[in-house]
Amino acid sequence: MQEPLPPILVTNDDGIAAPGLQVLAQALAAVGKVTIIAPDREQSASSHALTLHRPLRVNRQRDGVYSVDGTPTDCINLGILNLLAHRPRLVVSGINRGVNLGDDITYSGTVAAAFEGTLLGVPSFAISQQVNGEDPDFFVAARFAVLLARWILQVPLPAGTLLNVNVPQRKPHGTRLTRQGRRTYHQGVVERTDPSGRQYYWLGGIPPEWDESPGSDFAAIREGFVSLTPLHLDLTHYPLLQDLQESGLNLHLED
Ligand SMILES: [Mg+2]
After folding, report:
1. Number of domains in the chain
2. Is 238 buried (19+), middle (13-18) or exposed (0-12) by CB count in 10 A?
3. 18: CA distance to ligand 1 center in Å?
4. Under a CB-based contact definition with an 8 Å cutoff, are residues 66 and 59 in contact?
5. 242 C-alpha vs ligand 1 centroid, how far in Å?
6. Which residue range is the domain that position 229 belongs to?
7. In terms of pLDDT, which residue wins out, 255 or 190?
8. Residue 22 C-alpha to ligand 1 middle, in angstroms?
9. Mean of all residue pLDDT scores within the chain
C-alpha cells in the first residue's frame, strides 16, 4: 500500500490572493497534501502578532483552502490546533513578495508564521522572493521550496529551529548557507502635510542598506545565490549572559 501524502500547512503574510502563495501551494502538492490557511488580506510586517481581543472568522473558500481575518500567526494556530484533521508534518510560509533579510526578519509576518510552526513542534521554513521593480514569477523559489520540503521531511530539523530562505530575482548561481545580516542605517520616517494642513508620517520610506560582510544572507542575495539561514527561537545572548555572571552583577532590591 502507498504511504499517505504528508500533510503540509501553507500560509503567508501577503494575503490569500497573493500569487506567491498560490504558486507555492501548487508546487508543494507534488510533495504532500497541502492545506492553505492564510490571512484574508495583506499582513506584511505584522511580525508575530496574535489576535486575542476579538473573535477570528474563517472562510472556507474551497477544499483545503481557508482565509482568516487575522495574522499569519493566527493562521498557524488555527490550522494546527483546530482546522486540520491531521497534524502537519511541515509548515511553509511564503512565497513572500520581497526579501526577508537580516534585522528585517523581526518585522516579518512570513518568518513569524514559521516561528509559530516551530513553537508548535512542526518543522517549518519561510521563503521569500527578491523583487526589483518588475513582478517576479516565483517559479524558481517554488522549485526550491519543493527540494527543501523533501529534504526536511527526510532529515527533520532540530527542535526549536527553522529555516529562512531568500531567492534572488535572477536565476540563482546556487545556494549558500548564511547567517542573519545587519542593517547599517536607522529606520527612516517620512513627514508630509496632508491637504487639510495636518502632518502625517510614513515609516520605512527609505530603501534599506545592509552590512555586506561575507557569509551574510544579504551578501548571498546580492551575489545572486539562494540564501538559506538557520534560525532559532532562543533569543538569549549567551556570551553576554556569561559576561554578566562573571561581572558579579548583583542588583539588590530594597526590602
Ligand atoms: Mg509580505
Report:
1. 1
2. exposed
3. 9
4. yes
5. 37
6. 7-182+210-247
7. 190
8. 14
9. 93
